[in-house]
């Protein structure tokens, strides 16, 4: 009765906000399960026709993927389009295709059903292994298979392909996204995303923040609560997904956005100021980037250079970007763009949740403890030297520093520097210009490196503390596993103690130290980092001015005392309560 006039009921799902912003649009569900095609038996005479139908669907899918690839390449750049090479490979995988054709001959059932069964079997077996590498492959297969099934179901063009490219601006809701998935999202169509899996320091979340896409992770029962086409509001500040928002909710959000606008306008006045504590201690506030497309935004926010350029997306997203020339051009472009500041180019940090299928033909049993960062670079010296050459060439165009990720022992630092010296020697012989005083740094993100920081400091010019990993390895908590997310505690006294000791070791040895993990952008923790006497903070563009404001209201002495006090706490909750009180006292407007 009266169903046309009834308002749909508002429903709320609480997750973790990982990229701020509020967006409202239609829900676009990329479900984990395909819509099951019916199983129909067919007469023998239909088999050739069914085969032809299958091949047509494959051809159409190939064309759609290529078209998307070109579209993404022209709108977002080649580095975002490489994922589609992987999709084309999946599409043409003969293990799946041959099996479908064999079953068609033998069982004489409709090809949609057979293709569904075979691909579903692959996806399920990959998912069961629960390895991030295989999970990434499962998502690729799922994406491609759903395109093929759609083409088998609706041979007429115009319906728009499935996958992560809806026909109109939407909010993407899905079980999980890989970092490459996220990097290739079409921002004109995907206004925000929410996932069931994920965490604030997964690289998908980091990329979402870089691309300024509001995002929420760790949402449960997504597929049960939301239906395709629902009106949804995504609140990346508070980690909320609101389905069918009521008029009252919309009014509340309009007020919230207006208040946010006032705070933002006030923060913009800090854009050209230095970052200094209330008692005059100067901190360098730099930005983290993954793509050169972020440079205008980063400069707009008043970054003092780039404190972390994650270069692995060259390797993950498009083969043609990996050449020495393309890299040298790109790094040089960044160096020029941030002049008079500098850029810290981090060498390749493949591994963990950023797996590169070409190198990882054998799945990693334990990717976060496996072949990652400097380990992989030292095992592939030619590839590593290509990157070092490119960085050195760029150093002739502006202030460039080199940084090695995932260092666990001194020998790795020494070996990396030896390779760098070989490249420098080749340049000297060939008369190629580069900055002879180029600074070299080590990332301190593994507890073993933190504990021998005194020794490592003697071999490098600076440290950058990668707290995303330092927390993960100190607390033995997988940074992308939402089940243990509550145990992932940057404010844990053990982590804070390591940070303080690394900074002291660096200063004892006359080198400077920055923090480039997500902790650096969390204004609740800023007092502790100032108390630890870090020299630089490198944060995502969206956090820059907030951190500048927080630093400007803090006194070094007060922060040092606070750090000493919290280091006597046994509970992270006590540490965080102190942090909240301090932030509330000095910058309440940033705590929303
Ligand atoms: C870190 O570990 O803190 C870091 C900055 O590097 P990534 O997040 O890329 O591992
Ligand atoms: Mg790291």
Description:
The chain has 592 residues and is of the alpha/beta class. It has three domains: 106 residues, Phosphohistidine domain (Glucose Oxidase, domain 1); 110 residues, PtsI, HPr-binding domain (Enzyme I, Chain A, domain 2); 316 residues, Phosphoenolpyruvate-binding domains (TIM Barrel, Alpha-Beta Barrel), CATH 3.20.20.60. The strands form two sheets. The protein has an eight-stranded mixed sheet with strand order 1-8-7-3-4-5-6-2. Strands 9-10-11-12-13-14-15-16 form an eight-stranded parallel beta barrel, surrounded by five helices. The relative contact order is 0.10. About 2% of the residues have low confidence. Magnesium ion binds next to helix 18.
Task: Offer a concise description of the structure.
The protein has helices spanning 47-76, 83-91, 94-107, 111-129, 132-153, 179-183, 203-210, 222-225, 247-268, 295-300, 313-317, 324-338, 374-379, 381-394, 410-430, 447-451, 453-457, 467-475, 493-508, 526-531, 544-552, 556-566, 572-586; strands at residues 11-14, 16-19, 22-30, 170-174, 190-195, 215-217, 231-235, 240-243, 284-289, 306-310, 342-346, 399-404, 440-444, 462-465, 512-515, 536-539. Helix content is 47%, strand content 13%.
**Main sheet overview:** 8 strands, mixed
In total, how many domains does the architecture comprise?
Answer: 3
CATH superfamily of the largest domain: Phosphoenolpyruvate-binding domains
- Find the CATH topology of the largest domain: TIM Barrel
Helical content (DSSP H or I, runs of 4+): 40-55%
CATH class of the largest domain: Alpha Beta
CATH architecture of the largest domain: Alpha-Beta Barrel
Name the shape in a single word.
globular
């Amino acid at each position: 009765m009266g169903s046309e006039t009834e308002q749909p009921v508002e429903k709320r799902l609480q997750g973790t906000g990982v990229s701020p912003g509020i967006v409202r649009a239609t829900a676009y569900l990329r479900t984990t399960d395909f819509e099951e095609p019916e199983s129909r038996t067919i007469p023998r005479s239909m088999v050739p026709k069914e085969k032809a139908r299958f091949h047509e669907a494959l051809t159409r899918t190939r064309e759609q993927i290529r078209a998307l690839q070109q579209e993404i390449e022209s709108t977002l750049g080649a580095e975002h389009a490489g994922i589609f090479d992987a999709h084309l490979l999946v599409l043409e995988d003969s293990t799946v295709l041959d099996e479908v054709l064999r079953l068609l001959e033998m069982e004489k059932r409709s090809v949609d059903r057979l293709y569904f069964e075979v691909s579903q079997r692959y996806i399920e077996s990959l998912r069961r292994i629960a390895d991030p590498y295989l999970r990434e492959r499962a998502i690729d297969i799922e994406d491609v298979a759903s395109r093929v099934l759609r083409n088998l179901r609706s041979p007429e063009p115009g319906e728009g392909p499935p996958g992560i490219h809806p026909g109109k601006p939407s909010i993407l809701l899905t079980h999980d996204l890989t970092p490459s998935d996220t990097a290739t999202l079409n921002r004109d169509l995907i206004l925000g995303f929410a996932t069931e899996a994920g965490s604030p320091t997964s690289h998908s979340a980091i990329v979402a923040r870089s691309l300024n896409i509001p995002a929420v992770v760790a949402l449960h029962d997504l597929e049960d609560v939301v239906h395709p086409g629902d009106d949804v509001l995504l609140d990346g500040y508070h980690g909320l997904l609101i389905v069918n928002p009521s008029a009252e909710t919309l009014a509340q959000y309009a007020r919230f956005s207006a208040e946010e606008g006032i705070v933002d306008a006030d923060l913009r006045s800090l854009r050209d100021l230095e970052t200094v504590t209330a008692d005059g201690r100067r901190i360098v506030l730099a930005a983290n980037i993954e793509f050169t497309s972020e440079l205008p935004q980063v400069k707009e926010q008043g970054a003092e250079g780039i404190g972390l350029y994650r270069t692995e997306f060259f390797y993950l997203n498009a083969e043609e970007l990996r050449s020495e020339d393309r890299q040298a051009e790109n790094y040089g472009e960044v160096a020029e763009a941030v002049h008079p500041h500098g850029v810290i180019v981090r060498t390749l940090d493949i591994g963990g949740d950023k797996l590169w299928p070409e190198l990882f033909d054998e799945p990693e049993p334990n990717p976060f403890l496996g072949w990652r960062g400097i380990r992989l670079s030292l095992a592939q010296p030619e590839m590593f030297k290509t990157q070092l050459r490119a960085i050195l060439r760029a150093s002739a165009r502006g202030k460039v520093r080199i940084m090695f990720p995932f260092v666990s022992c001194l020998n790795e630092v020494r070996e990396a520097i030896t390779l760098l010296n070989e490249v420098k020697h080749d340049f000297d012989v060939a008369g190629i210009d580069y900055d002879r005083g180029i600074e070299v740094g080590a990332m301190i993100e593994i507890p073993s490196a933190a504990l021998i920081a005194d020794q490592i400091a003697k071999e490098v010019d600076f440290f950058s503390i990668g707290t995303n990993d330092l927390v993960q390895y100190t607390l033995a908590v997988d940074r992308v596993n939402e089940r243990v997310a509550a145990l992932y505690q940057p404010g844990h006294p053990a982590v804070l103690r390591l940070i303080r000791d690394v900074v002291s070791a660096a200063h004892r040895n006359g080198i400077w130290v920055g923090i480039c993990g997500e902790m650096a952008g969390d204004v609740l923790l800023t007092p502790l980092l100032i108390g630890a006497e870090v020299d630089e903070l490198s944060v995502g563009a969206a956090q820059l001015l907030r951190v500048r404001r927080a630093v400007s209201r803090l006194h070094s002495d007060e922060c040092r005392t606070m750090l000493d006090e919290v280091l006597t706490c046994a509970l992270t909750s006590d540490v965080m309560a102190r942090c909240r009180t301090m932030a509330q006292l000095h910058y309440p407007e940033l705590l929303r």
